[in-house]
Amino acid sequence: MGSNFSYIHSWDHSVFGILSNNTVVRLCNGTWFAFTGSAMQIVKSGPSGLWGIDTSQNLYTFDGQKWWFMQSNVKECETNVENTIFWIDGNEKVHCAKRNEQKPFVLAPTHVFNHEIKTMTCSATQCFALKKSSSEMVFLSRTCPLIERHTGETNVPINRMMAMPNGTIFGLDHDGYLYVRNGGRRDSSWSKRGSIHKIRHASVGANILWITHRREVKACNSQKAGMSSGNDENSGQCMESSATSSCLHGIEVTGTHTYDVCDSCCYNKGIQSNSSYNRYHGKWCFSCAFCYCWYFVIFVNFFAFNL
Fold first, then answer.
1. Domain limits, CATH 2.130.10.30, in the chain
2. Most buried residue, 32, 60, 207, 212, by most Cβ within 10 Å?
3. Lateral strand order in the sheet of 191-193
4. What kind of architecture, by CATH, is found in domain 5-259?
5. How confident is the model over 255-295, as pLDDT tens digits?
6. How far apart are CA 223 and CA 298, in angstroms?
7. C-beta neighbour count of 291 within 10 angstroms
8. CA distance 96 to 144
9. Separation of CA 200 from chain center
10. Cα–Cα separations (whole angstroms), residue 8 to 40, 161, 300
11. Coil/strand/helix, residue 293
């Protein structure tokens, strides 16, 4: 597949990417696995599940086997609230919907937040949105419908935001420079981190800051990128470009395996270890149910021969 990434997203220990041909891939133990039949420009995972937006701005959700169409005219989505999906439409209006328990792949009636918003993100305690026509940041509840708590000024023209559970927010400006702020404080301001620019996308999961830069994916220490003081000589060092990169490591695409039904166990169970993941991966395995049945047969035969 090559190191030709256009997008990266991480939540907890899960890392998803999109290649330049719009193929969705997931990182499992150092190897990128491709989803079959996917052509997305955005993919996000979180407590509300795995969601994607295709090149025609249609919103989909993934059930472990296939992508289900959910909504049209969607520019961005936010997945960090359990059983709830937020999205921004083509008119910069924010919508939200809860999972419909009777019909899991049909969205319940949506609620509209009336401000024109260019980007939004949620931490473990609240959500944040940037107004399109001003420098205001809106502090919101994590509920559907959204409740506006207060607003605060921003000192940098941020284009995209991504929040950590603790409230730290990373942002990218129009030139692809990285910024960070303490999202929980109204009087907090954005501070620049590192000297790299033209970062296409950034995302944070499990204290790792993932970025796409020059079509490559890099993983950096988010604590150094986000929590150091501006006067600290190590502040933002993971973003510095040098011969000895201070990023933790660069991730290369090392596999061309197909993401099939069995591999969906990796996502549904949150499996990250190589032994657990490969347990479900292979051409002999046709479904996760088959995997479990196979183990049951082995278990029964073991006791039959040892009694």
1. 5-259
2. 32
3. 158-163, 168-173, 178-182, 191-193
4. 7 Propeller (2.130)
5. 433 333 334 444 333 333 222 223 223 322 333 444 444 44
6. 46
7. 19
8. 6
9. 14
10. 12, 13, 44
11. helix
